[in-house]
Write a structure and sequence with these properties.
5-stranded parallel β-sheet; two-stranded antiparallel sheet; 7 strands; 41% helix; 10% strand; globular; binds thiamine diphosphate; binds magnesium ion
């Protein structure tokens, strides 16, 4: 059986994508109200990538993520309350309110960190994959990165390293066409990023990043290759950035010809397919109500949670010295 003919499976993915969508919409609103400090990048309209990829992983498989990482964290199983409280800087957040949006860690879920340093995740994923291979587990590692990260030297090193050491790593490039205000064609002469895999000696596939089943299917194959053959794969998921680079981005830069922020909505695509397969409107209403209450609850939880204790500001800095 392939992943593309299982109705219940797609319903699960739809629900998950809706959670990511509503969570990010609520995050954007809370940020605009001044309730969330710092800086935040939303994962709107890229939901099919995180959800499709993570649907093929176990909690023993590690992922590394980016500055745009809330969706990856949720798709890997992070509790909405623990994420929202972290964004609010509260002690009940996943890392006690110390990390915020770009430093979300929960290794027992396989969440090896969102990360504000562009292109830093590839090397970390290689490390996790090397550890799994050395220990003889069948764990694998996935690194999510943007198109911008593909032209950073650290990504080249990581891909070469994974290929030459035959590591069970999947490089997922979310090609949303932009690196901040720079369109891909302004920093890459060849914009078909999957073809780069060939020079490293690994398999590269380009997939429709708005189609959650297509992403899941490509990942299933890459996971098989990683687990059974200990071979890396590069998946380029073609997607789009629905909004500005960060919440508050005025987008007063030159948009490339043909750019439209109103491309294909992964949720709508999935909904149409489910409807055609006989899923009734009631089901969608029920799921939306359920998700709205989960997200609303996460906001209330975050608001009511205490701030971290200032006396613990130096905790977790040194191994074994957590109470300094
Ligand atoms: C090493 C490094 N260089 C520059 C930046 C500033 N920066 C933050 S996000 C970003 C754009 C990344 O684009 P992409 O990888 O395509 O991800 P997207 O924002 O599209 O998801 C840049 C240049 C950074 N955080 N780290
Ligand atoms: Mg990008």
């Amino acid at each position: 059986m392939t992943v593309t003919n299982d109705l219940e499976f797609e319903q699960t993915l739809y629900r998950e994508m809706l959670l990511l969508r509503r969570f990010e919409e609520a995050t954007g609103d809370a940020f605009s109200r001044g309730e969330i400090p710092g800086f935040t990048h939303l994962y709107l309209w890229q939901e099919a990538v995180a959800v499709g990829v993570c649907s093929q992983l176990t909690s023993a498989d590690q992922i590394t993520s980016t500055h745009r990482g809330h969706g990856h964290a949720l798709a890997k199983g992070l509790e909405p309350r623990a994420l929202m409280a972290e964004l609010y800087g509260r002690s009940t957040g996943v890392v006690g309110g110390r990390g915020g949006s770009m430093h979300l860690y929960q290794p027992e879920l396989g969440l090896l960190g969102t990360n504000g340093i562009v292109a830093s995740g590839g090397g970390l994923a290689c490390g996790a994959a090397l550890a799994a291979k050395t220990r003889g587990t069948d764990g694998i590692a996935v690194t999510f990165m943007g198109d911008g990260a593909t032209d950073h030297g650290a990504t080249h090193e990581a891909m070469n390293f994974a290929a030459v050491l035959e590591l069970p790593v999947i490089f997922v490039v979310e090609n949303n066409g932009f690196s901040e205000g720079t369109p891909l064609a302004a920093h890459a002469a060849r914009t078909d990023l999957a073809q780069r895999a060939e020079i490293y000696g690994m398999v590269g596939v380009r997939v429709d990043g708005q189609d959650v089943l297509a992403v899941a299917e490509a990942t299933r194959e890459a996971v098989r290759r990683a687990r059974k053959q200990s071979a890396p794969t590069l998946i380029e998921a073609v997607t789009l950035r629905k909004t500005g680079h960060f919440v508050g981005d005025q987008m007063n830069y030159l948009l490339p010809e043909g750019w439209t922020a109103f491309g294909r909505d992964p949720l709508e695509m999935s909904r149409q397919r489910l409807t055609a397969s006989g899923v009734a409107d009631d089901w969608f209403t029920h799921i939306a109500d359920e998700i709205d209450s989960v997200v609303g609850d996460s906001i209330e939880f975050a608001r009511q949670s205490p701030w971290p204790d200032a006396r613990e500001v130096t905790s977790h800095l040194f191994a074994g010295e957590n109470n300094r």
